[in-house]
Structures are given as structure tokens and as C-alpha cells.
Design brief:
Blueprint: H1 2-12, H2 17-29, H3 37-51, E1 59-61, H4 71-78, E2 96-97, E3 115-116, H5 142-158, H6 176-183, H7 205-215, E4 218-219, E5 250-261, H8 272-282, E6 285-289, E7 298-303, H9 305-311, E8 320-332, E9 335-346, E10 358-362, E11 374-380, H10 405-411
Parallel strand pairs: 2-5, 7-10
Antiparallel strand pairs: 1-7, 3-8, 4-5, 5-11, 6-8, 6-11, 8-9, 9-10
Helix pairs in contact: 5-7
């Protein structure tokens, strides 16, 4: 008991009894354990963060698992700084340009104001095509989670698996660990038949789609659980394990088109109907953006374009990958004439962040880049189809170029940072 009393005593000299209870409740809720001077240091950071919460006009910021981290610690552990935007040639270019070779009908009027793959009553197929917010934890693997969510959503949309959370046969989804273990490599050290990504140090979603296509499949998560969220899980710089993919555990693979994009001519902020139509026809969309400012502390409400301008008022790059699963219409509670449409964006920081793991981002302004790098996967289920072997005519090859910016940094020793394309 003496060491515990000593810690309480050192913290008590700095904070009130009400503060101490709040700090104790926070640690209990988020399973935080600190000893000695680290406890008082973390408590100090926690209360400084609470005092400096930047609550926007229509959003509420709150306490989450990041509230005892400094801004610098948060950015170092959960974002990748200076990933190119617009994207460089180290991102695989999805071959399919949405609505170009196939012209889809216009969006039905009933869904123009609201659509949601989480709720069967709010989509045209009456299915659930989203498996909820997962947690990448202390690993820069947001790109893998975003890519996996798009692949899962496409398979769920097709009815290949039961994705209803109320079903006794609920599918547990695709393995992010499979992506990290089997697909990661440093292109400064070797060459593989797909564009590179760096384990817990970031990557692009399209490169993941290409990897799964090239290898003919990806594992069910239930047989290949996530481990890299523990920053010391593996004794190597990428924090990945040995590849243990087995064909018998194959959950699916992309068709010969692999993936598609709505961004052939740049961001779709001036044509959000195209992004809506892709979400309607293809399922959840993998997107990339810049995370800064109030994003860390977001709890609920509408993340407006005005707030995004405050948070991303720099010549920003890409620092996070997420998934768009629907859209909706927000009405100003004090001015009913002020209505705004928003994207329903799924994060990979677990359900304790945001609105059960999601954020509403205002549509039509490419806020922090959310409408500038949008992709989807064209998936096939293994019990229906066999993987098609790539042919020389397919434009899926890795170009003979210099190493990508983030992998080059890794090769020069920036392995101590846990970075992510979150």
C-alpha cells in the first residue's frame, strides 16, 4: 500500500479531491496504469487538455483514450506526418474510374438526403455492410483498417457474409494482421509484385487492395487475430509477425479490376453526387485525410467545413485513413434554414472515440482532404469464384521508381516512431 499512497499523495498536492476522482475515473474507464512521477505527469497533461478543449460551434469535444497524451505524443503515435497530398506515384492507381466505362443510374430520390450501410432500413439492399469501428491501437495501421473495411463492406453488400450485429451468425470480418504480416515490406530492401506498405509505419489502401489481388486472398479475422496494436508484439522495426495465410481461410479477393476511384479528375467536393453514387453502388469507401486540431477530442456533433478550415489551415498532407459508410442531413437547432449534408466517417480508434467510433464531416468542401482520395474494392467470395491469375496485360505492376517518401524515411532509421495513415 505504501507506494500507492505515495503516488496519491504526490498527485494530491497538485489537484483537488474532485480532480483526483476525475483522474481516477478516467484511468479506470480507459484501463490506464501509471506509477511514480509518471502518474502525476499524465494527470497534469490530462487536465491541461481538458482546459484547452476547442469546442466548435456545432461539435462537442470530450474525454477519450487520448486525453492524457500531449498533442506531440498523439501526432507521433497515431498520425503520419508529411505523407504526400496529392498522392505520389508510390500509391497504386486503381484501374477502375467510377462511372466511366459503366454508367450507373442516378441516385434514387429517397436516398439523396440520407443513406447508411450500418442500418438496413437506410439503404436500398436492406442489409448491414459495415462491421463497426475497430481499434488499430498503438500501430500506424489505419491504412490497413480502412482498406479492410472497404473490402468487408463490399462483401457484406453482396450478401457473401452475414454482417448484421444482431445475427447469431455475425461475420467477424477480414484480418488486418494478415495484411501487415504478409504484405508489408521496405522497397529500399526488396521488391514484391505489389506496391509497398510499411507495417505499423503507414501505407496506402490501394496498395493493400493490390496485394490481396496479387496473392489471391485474405484471411478471416477470427482465425488470424490482430496483434500489432501492442507496440512490442514483435521484435522487428515494422512490428509484424510471420505470414500465416492459408488458402482454406480465404475470405475473399478483388476481381480483375481490383479497385476503383472517383478522383480521376481530382477531389469531388464540387460533385459529391459522384461520391454518393459510388458509396451506393460499391459499398463503404476508403478515404484519406489530414488529422489535426479538434479531431483528437471529437465526441459528437457536426464537424463543419468552418471547423475544418481552422484545423487544416495549413498546406496539409495526408496523415490518416478512414472509411465513409453513409451520409445524412443536419439541421441547425437554432436556424432551421441552415441545413448541411455530411459524410458518416468510420475511424479505427475504437468505439470510445467520437460517436461510437464515427464522426459526421460536412460534405462538399473537401474538408481536410476527405473528398480527395476516395477508393473502393471490387471483391469476390471464394466459395463462388476462384482467384484470377494476373496477366501481363493487366496494369497492376509495381513501377520501377525510387522508394516512397515514408518507406525511405523508415529505411533511414525513423523506426522509433509509431506512425500511421490514420
Amino acid at each position: 500500500m505504501l507506494p500507492i499512497l505515495a503516488v496519491v499523495s504526490s498527485v494530491a498536492t497538485e489537484f483537488s479531491s474532485e480532480n483526483l476522482k476525475q483522474w481516477a475515473d478516467y484511468k479506470h474507464k480507459f484501463n490506464k496504469h501509471y506509477i511514480g512521477t509518471e502518474d502525476s505527469s499524465r494527470a497534469s497533461t490530462f487536465f491541461k487538455n481538458l482546459e484547452s478543449h476547442e469546442t466548435g460551434k456545432f461539435i462537442k469535444n470530450g474525454v477519450n483514450q487520448f486525453s492524457d497524451l500531449t498533442k506531440e505524443e498523439f501526432l507521433d503515435k497515431f498520425t503520419l506526418i508529411n505523407q504526400p497530398y496529392p498522392e505520389d506515384d508510390e500509391q497504386f492507381e486503381c484501374p477502375e474510374k467510377f462511372n466511366e466505362t459503366i454508367t450507373y443510374p442516378e441516385l434514387p430520390e429517397i436516398y439523396k438526403s440520407e443513406f447508411d450501410w450500418r442500418n438496413p432500413s437506410k439503404n436500398h439492399l436492406n442489409v448491414v455492410a459495415d462491421l463497426g469501428a475497430k481499434n488499430q491501437a498503438s500501430c500506424g495501421s489505419c491504412y490497413a483498417f480502412s482498406a479492410v473495411a472497404a473490402m468487408e463492406g463490399n462483401l457484406c453488400k453482396q450478401g457473401a457474409y452475414d454482417c448484421d450485429p444482431d445475427s447469431p451468425d455475425l461475420w467477424q470480418g477480414i484480418s488486418e494482421q494478415n495484411v501487415l504480416d504478409c504484405g508489408s515490406y521496405r522497397d529500399s530492401e526488396e521488391t514484391r509484385p505489389w506496391y509497398s506498405f510499411g507495417g505499423c509505419h503507414g501505407g496506402w489502401q490501394a496498395n493493400v487492395f493490390q496485394y490481396v489481388y496479387k496473392t489471391g486472398g485474405i484471411s478471416h479475422a477470427v482465425n488470424y487475430p490482430y496483434e500489432s496494436g501492442n507496440s512490442t508484439a514483435f521484435d522487428n522495426g515494422l512490428n509484424i509477425g510471420e505470414c500465416r495465410f492459408e488458402k482454406e481461410n480465404n475470405a475473399g479477393f478483388p476481381d480483375k479490376n481490383i479497385c476503383g476511384t472517383v478522383n480521376k479528375y481530382g477531389p469531388v467536393d464540387q460533385n459529391t453526387d459522384l461520391m454518393k453514387l459510388a458509396l451506393f453502388e460499391k459499398g463503404p469507401l476508403a478515404v484519406s485525410l489530414w488529422v489535426n486540431g479538434t479531431w483528437r477530442d471529437y465526441e459528437s456533433g457536426l464537424y463543419t467545413h468552418e471547423q475544418a478550415e481552422l484545423d487544416c489551415n495549413v498546406d496539409h498532407t495526408i496523415s490518416h485513413c478512414v472509411t465513409v459508410v453513409g451520409w445524412g442531413t443536419w439541421v441547425n437547432p437554432v436556424d432551421s434554414n441552415d441545413t448541411r449534408q455530411y459524410w458518416i466517417v468510420k475511424n479505427s480508434w475504437g468505439p470510445t472515440w467520437g460517436e461510437n467510433g464515427y464522426i459526421k464531416m460536412e460534405m462538399g468542401y473537401n474538408s481536410c482532404g476527405v473528398e480527395g482520395n476516395v477508393q473502393y474494392a471490387n471483391m469476390m467470395a471464394p466459395d463462388v469464384y476462384e482467384p484470377e491469375s494476373p496477366t501481363d496485360s493487366m496494369s497492376t505492376e509495381v513501377p520501377m521508381t525510387e522508394s516512397s517518401s515514408f518507406v525511405s524515411l523508415i529505411s533511414f532509421g525513423v523506426l522509433g516512431l509509431v506512425l500511421s495513415l490514420v
